[in-house]
Amino acid sequence: MEIIRRTEIASFTNGGVASEQLLFPENSQSQRVTITRVTVAPGAKNPPHAHAASEQVWVALRGSGILLLGGATTAPFAEGDVVRFAEGDVHGLENTGSVGFIYLSVTSPPINFRGAYAVDWRTSSNNAP
């Protein structure tokens, strides 16, 4: 059993996106999942990106926005919605609402997102987690 205390939860920020690493390789021995609570400020974007070897499930907890998908496709995404991205699926999110958009992300197998948040997404060609 593991209990992750609030003091063990790392928080990364980039371009109006705050990512709380609730369970990830630095605070857990889990070999199966990373769990992240992400807050996207109004008008901010989690830029389109893909994970070659992990799938992700996002659960929208608050707000509304637009999913940014491959081929410049978009889809609405709002509180209560759930979306699953297979390995390699391009995905991102733009908060088009007036409050912070909050979603829970479950990634399997786990990913340590620290390095992705260390890069300025506005200037990088591989510009998101």
Walk me through the structure:
With 129 residues, the chain is mainly beta. The protein contains 1 helix and 10 strands. The strands form 2 sheets. The protein has a 6-stranded antiparallel β-sheet. Strands 4-9-6-7 form a 4-stranded antiparallel β-sheet, with no helix packed on it. The model has no long low-confidence stretch (mean pLDDT 93).
Features:
1 helix, 45% strand, 129 residues, 6-stranded antiparallel beta sheet, mainly beta, 4-stranded antiparallel beta sheet
Quick synopsis:
With 129 residues, this protein is mostly beta strands. The chain has one helix spanning 114-118; strands spanning 10-14, 17-23, 34-40, 45-49, 55-62, 64-68, 74-78, 82-85, 91-94, 101-108. 4% of the residues lie in helices and 45% in strands.
Layout of SSEs?
Blueprint: E1 10-14, E2 17-23, E3 34-40, E4 45-49, E5 55-62, E6 64-68, E7 74-78, E8 82-85, E9 91-94, E10 101-108, H1 114-118
Antiparallel strand pairs: 1-2, 2-3, 3-10, 4-9, 5-8, 5-10, 6-7, 6-9
Low-confidence stretches: none
Specify Rg, calculated over alpha carbons: 14 Å
Distance from N terminus to C terminus (CA atoms, Å) equals 28 Å
The chain-level mean pLDDT equals 93
Order of helices and strands: EEEEEEEEEEH
Q: What is the percentage of strand-forming residues?
A: 35-45%
Largest sheet: 6 strands, antiparallel
Helix content range: under 10%
Total number of helical segments?
Answer: 1
Give me the secondary-structure category.
mainly beta
Query: What is the strand arrangement across the widest sheet?
Result: 1-2-3-10-5-8
